[in-house]
Specification:
The protein is about 50% helix and about 15% strand. By secondary structure, the protein is of the alpha/beta class. Helix 2 links the parallel strand 1 and strand 2. The protein starts with a helix and ends in a 7-residue tail after the last helix.
Length: about 375
C-alpha cells in the first residue's frame, strides 16, 4: 500500500470515528404513544360498582406506564345501561363494565352466569367453573353466534344478593303472588313462575318506581349500592338471602378488534388487571358492605331472613324455568350441563371440606358468647 493511500485510509477512518462519536453524543429521545380507550359502566357514578370499574381501569393504567389509558364513564354517558353490549361490539365504545345477565334478551343462556342457584355453587365456585370448567369457552361461543365483536373478562365474585326491599315483609310463598317486583335476567322467569308481576327496570329507575308505587318490591344487589340508590328512604324492610342471583359476576367487555390491535404486552396487562380486580373487589365488598349494613340499620331498616319455604319455592320455580329454556335453546342446555358436572364434583369437595364458620362466629359473638 502506498503512503498516499495509507494517509487517505487513515483520514477516512478518523472521519468515520468522529461521525460515530458525534452521533453517540446526541441523547436518544424515546417516544411512547398512548392508546386511549373509552369505557362506560352500567352503573351510576357514585355507586360502588362504578368504583369497581374505575379500580380496574386504574390497575391497567398504572401497569401500562402511559402506553394504555382507559377512561370509564358512568351509565348513560354514551348509551343506556342495557345497550352496553351492542355499543362495545360496534365500536361506539371501546369497552364497558356490567353484568352478563343484562344481555339476557340476546340469548337466555347468558343469564346463567348470574341468575339462579347454579346447582349449589357459591359465587366463587361459579367463577372457578367459568375459568377452569368450560364456562369461558361457552360464553365465547354464545357471543360468536350472535356476531358480537367482543372479548369478555368475568370477575367477582359478588356476594349473595338479598331477596330485596319490600313495603311489607313476606312470610310465606303466597305473599309473593301478585307483587309488582323488579328484577333482571332469568330471575324474571323465576319470579314470574312464583306469581309475581315482574318489571326489569334499570338500576337508576328502581327507587323512584318504588316511591311512586309503580312497584311493590325490588332487588338490586348489596348493602352499599342499595343504600346509595336510596332504598331506605322509601322502604324500611329488606329480606336477606335468596337463590335468584346467588352467584353473579361482573363482566369487563372489550371491543375485540381494538383489544387484538394492542401489543402482546398490553393485552397481558389487561388480562392480569382483570385477575387482580377479582381479588381487590371481593375484599372491598366485604369491607364496605358490612359497614353499610350497619348504617342501614341505623337508618331504621329492618332485616329479615327470607323464609325457607320461599327459598324452596325459588328452587322449584328455577327447575321449571330451566327445563323450558333448555328445551328451546341448545346452548342453554349445554351451559347447564357444564355447570352441573362441575358443581357436582366441586360442590361435594367444598361442602365436605368447609367448616361451619357460623359456629365459630356464634361462639364469639352470638347469644351466650363469653364476654372477654
Amino acid at each position: 500500500m502506498s503512503d498516499k493511500k495509507t494517509v487517505t485510509s487513515r483520514r477516512g477512518m478518523l472521519k468515520g470515528a468522529a461521525v460515530a462519536a458525534g452521533a453517540m453524543s446526541v441523547p436518544m429521545i424515546a417516544t411512547a404513544q398512548t392508546t386511549s380507550l373509552r369505557f362506560q359502566s352500567t352503573w351510576p357514578s357514585k355507586d360502588i360498582f362504578h368504583e369497581y370499574a374505575q379500580d380496574f381501569a386504574k390497575k391497567v393504567n398504572d401497569m401500562a406506564g402511559g402506553k394504555l389509558k382507559i377512561e370509564v364513564l358512568p351509565a348513560g354517558s354514551v348509551v343506556p345501561a342495557f345497550q352496553l353490549l351492542e355499543a362495545v361490539a360496534k365500536g361506539t365504545l371501546d369497552g364497558g363494565h356490567g353484568v352478563v345477565a343484562y344481555h339476557y334478551g340476546k340469548n337466555s343462556a347468558l343469564a346463567l352466569w348470574g341468575s339462579g342457584p347454579a346447582f349449589g355453587m357459591d359465587p366463587n365456585m361459579v367463577l372457578a367453573w367459568h375459568n377452569y370448567g368450560g364456562g369461558k369457552a361457552l360464553l365465547e361461543e354464545i357471543y360468536a353466534s350472535l356476531n358480537l365483536d367482543v372479548t369478555s373478562y368475568l370477575y367477582g365474585p359478588m356476594p349473595t344478593q338479598p331477596l330485596g326491599w319490600f313495603k311489607k315483609p313476606v312470610a310465606k310463598v303466597a305473599d309473593m303472588k301478585g307483587l309488582k317486583f323488579r328484577t333482571v335476567g332469568l330471575a324474571v322467569d323465576v319470579f314470574t313462575e312464583m306469581g309475581t308481576a315482574v318489571n326489569p327496570l334499570p338500576g337508576g329507575e328502581i327507587v323512584p318506581a318504588l316511591d311512586r308505587g309503580l312497584i311493590d318490591a325490588a332487588e338490586f344487589n348489596n348493602a352499599s349500592s342499595d343504600r346509595l340508590l336510596g332504598f331506605p328512604d322509601v322502604v324500611k324492610n329488606c329480606m336477606l338471602q335468596s337463590f335468584h342471583q346467588s352467584g353473579e359476576q361482573f363482566e369487563i367487555l372489550f371491543n375485540k378488534t381494538k383489544l387484538n390491535a394492542l401489543p402482546a404486552e398490553l393485552k397481558s396487562i389487561v388480562d392480569y388487571a382483570a385477575q387482580a380486580a377479582r381479588a381487590d373487589m371481593s375484599w372491598k365488598a366485604i369491607q364496605r358492605n358490612s359497614q353499610d349494613y350497619i348504617e342501614l340499620k341505623k337508618q331504621g331498616v329492618k332485616f329479615y331472613k327470607t323464609p325457607d319455604p320461599i327459598l324452596r319455592a325459588q328452587l322449584d320455580a328455577w327447575d321449571k324455568t330451566i327445563a323450558k329454556k333448555a328445551s328451546d335453546n341448545a346452548i342453554f342446555k349445554k351451559v347447564l350441563d357444564s355447570q352441573k358436572a362441575f358443581a357436582q364434583r366441586a360442590g361435594q369437595w367444598q361442602n365436605d371440606y368447609t367448616v361451619d364458620f357460623k359456629m365459630a362466629y356464634n361462639h364469639y359473638f352470638g347469644k351466650g358468647a363469653k364476654k372477654s
